[in-house]
Amino acid sequence: MTPHASARASTTRLRGRAQDLPVLRRWGPSSTQIGTVRVVQPSSLMAAPETLTISLARSACTAAPPPLPRAVARESEPAIAIPPVARSRRTTRSRPELHPGLRAGAWKVERELGKGGMASVYAVVHARFGKRAALKLAHASILGPQFTPETFLREARIANLVDHPAVPDVFATGTYDRRPYLVMERLHGETLGARLDRGSLERTDGIEILLELCDVLGAAHAVHVVHRDLKLDNVFLLDPVRSGGRRLQLLDWGVAAILGEPDPLAGMVAGTLTYVAPEQVRGEPLTPAADVYSLAVLAYQLLLGEPPFSSPEDRELIRKHLHDAPPAPSTLWPEIPADLELLLLGMLAKRPEDRPTIADTVQVLTRLRGERAPRRAHRRALALPFSVPARLLGAAFAIAAAALSVAAAW
Questions:
Q1: Could you tell me if residue 385 is inside a domain?
Q2: In this structure, are residues 82 and 25 in contact, taking their beta carbons and an 8 Å threshold?
Q3: Cα–Cα distance for residue pair 300/307, rounded to 1 Å
Q4: Residue 24 belongs to what domain range?
Q5: How confident is the model at residue 241 (pLDDT cuts 50, 70, 90)?
Q6: What whole-number distance in Å separates Cα of residue 248 and Cα of residue 214?
Q7: Separation between Cα atoms, residue 275 and residue 213, nearest integer Å
């Protein structure tokens, strides 16, 4: 597998893959003309190699979002207005900003690995020591008073604050052409989104992935960090040959929130609309329950094949997150264990205080894993091992045929 193999561009509606554009929006000052509203994808080590920044024409924005139509706005909810967004993931290749052979500080560029809305990622090698790494360089277009170089570089602090094997190690920072960059470990494998594009996983494997995500999210929540952009393309499945026994890493901590500290993204919807929790859209105080909600959306995609809510229109998708009951998982998986169905529905509760904690989620998933493991082992025992040499298979069939011949003679 090539380093940082990225998810392929896709416009299929299955699992909501065509809707997984993250959102980073702010309304401008009152009576001020704003030429564009930009949808920005937080770049990751696994950012797809296409530019996903979309500009939307808008004549004016106000400090408070204008009210939604009556069909969307409710008296009990604050009004939220989201401009329409094109949802297709088109591939638009551009020349890399750092060409092979150029240097950013002590790091020599080998090739471009991927490009996202906030940054480009390059394979680099230390010019003196030969250490291979990934360099994440911010786009000049995202930097400004509302998103400073310090905001971009806070990902390094968050990664080291969480300090978990499933969080990419960030070990250097710097600037190139007045733009900040991060240097982190180079990964080998593919995103969970890219893996599901090739076909579904066994549900037992899906439960294992969810448990590993719970482990890293639990570590983050213990140090008051909320990821707030959990999604298929931010879960990186590691190449088992090179991973040293690790299974996955959770990427893109750049938009994470540190509870109790000023949020540089306050006033913005930071996340991906397919996964965003209702309180994130409302602008309410953030808690770890927001990650629980996003994890439930990912679990629907992983175990059931599609997200609980989907729509080609942002307004409608937001309305569903705020007001619609999620579809019962048993409609997509009739044999789903009752405990798992209740867990997923509880994780999608509209009020964060009504959702189970990560610890509660681990308890249910661990019990289900124990119940499903014997059945999986039994199926494997019945299956013929792939490692049996062909010559031994031939001998086995010959012996069986001889035995049948003897039995017929008697």
A1: no
A2: yes
A3: 5
A4: 14-139+165-184
A5: confident
A6: 12
A7: 15
Indicate if 221 and 176 belong to the same structural domain: no
Q: pTM for the full model? A: 0.71
- Residue 165 in contact with residue 195, Cβ under 8 Å? no
What one-character-per-residue DSSP string does 217-265 give? HHHHHHTTEE-----GGGEEEEPTTTSTT--EEE---TT-EETTS--TT
Told to judge if 239 belongs to the known catalytic residues of this protein, a careful annotator would answer no
Tokens (6 digits) for 394: 């031939």
Residue with structure tokens 């930097």?
Answer: 143
Say whether pLDDT at 157 is over 60.
yes
Residue 61 in 3-state DSSP? Answer: strand
Options 197, 229, 233, 252, the catalytic residue: 229
pLDDT in the model for residue 374: 60
Q: Please report, for the domain that includes residue 122, its CATH number.
A: 3.30.200
pLDDT in tens, 244-259: 667 899 999 999 999 9
Burial (CB < 10 A; 0-12, 13-18, 19+), residue 271, is: buried
pLDDT, tens only, 61-107? 222 333 433 333 333 333 333 333 333 333 344 555 899 999 999 99
Which sign does the torsion angle of CA 153, 62, 59, 268 carry?
Answer: positive
Task: Tell me how far apart the alpha carbons of residues 353 and 289 are, in angstroms, rounded to a whole number.
Answer: 7
What φ, ψ does residue 405 adopt, rounded to 5°? -65, -45
Please count the structural domains in the chain. Answer: 2
